[in-house]
Amino acid sequence: MLNLLVSAKSDMWESNSALFPRERCLTEYISKEFYSRFSGLGEKEIKKLKSIPAIFAYESFNSKDAYIGKITGISVREQNVKIDYAIDDRIFYNDFINLEAQLDLGGWELNRTHWTVKNVKIDEIKPYFSSNRKPKPKIFISYCWSPPENQKKVFDLIKKLNVDGISVIYDKKDLKAGQDKNYFMEQALTNNEIDRILVICNRDYAKKADAREGGVGYESEIIISQIASEPLQVKFIPVVMETGKNGKPFLPVFLKSRLYIDLTKENGYVDLLSAIQSGDNEGKGSDD
Predict the structure, then answer these.
(1) pLDDT per residue over 187-208, tens digit each?
(2) How far apart are CA 184 and CA 179, in angstroms?
(3) Which of 98, 188, 266, 271: CA 20 to 30 A from 32?
(4) In this structure, how many other beta carbons lie within 10 angstroms of the beta carbon of residue 237?
(5) Residue 11: exposed, middle, or buried by beta-carbon count in 10 A (0-12, 13-18, 19+)?
(6) Which of 194, 267, 200, 274 is nearest to 235 (CA)?
(7) Which residues of 154-175 are buried (b: 16+ CB within 10 A; e: fewer)?
(8) C-alpha span between 11 and 18 (Å, rounded)
(9) pLDDT tens by residue, 209-237
(10) Model-level pTM greater than 0.70?
């Protein structure tokens, strides 16, 4: 058995205690046997619950890692239950969402704050603990929506990166209806948890970046502020998707002195994958 606690609060598992609504504790997504056994939260039940491992997770919209640990204290109040806990390990988000079958998760379960008990042995999910897994590199892609064929090239690139074990964040997938576009871009471009940012350069991207036009222009301003004082940074990688008739890459002015990856060349994708995975920016060279 193990406890599963899911919270919508984005920083719930960053201290050592949490409050859960009493009506959400051991009443939902729980078998009849475990409901009868634990929902009363008496002294005997609390002792047993503290003795079994726990997963501390977030509702899926947070896209955050889950944690492995134990409940160290349970205090039942009139409206809430105070849970003290200790963290031992984590499960990366992309791994956790693939544990639906192993954890017997209901279809809406990761969209609901609750505490339940699962009839799962902790050894069954140990291979997914971060201490036993090499984390996937996480990247964000800055690109131009025009022309339409550029979008197709970008989405084809994303598919290849996913196949090669790269976690890709981009607007068409991760920006949700109702969210602020500028805030989304700011968070992605300044997030320390993102390993690399690919700046996909084509003719339109270069033109809009130089003119500070639209979303590309807004992203360019943020990128410039991030790299202006860091000539040896490797997080922001210029990636050339299009060249002129003379083979000259289309790069915005602020990237012309930076080494870049040229996807129009035969080994371009191999160079890009290497740069993402190793951190070595092995581009063709700057546009002299």
Answers:
(1) 999 999 999 999 999 999 999 9
(2) 8
(3) 98
(4) 24
(5) exposed
(6) 194
(7) beebbeebeeeebbbbbbeeeb
(8) 10
(9) 999 999 999 999 999 999 999 999 999 99
(10) no
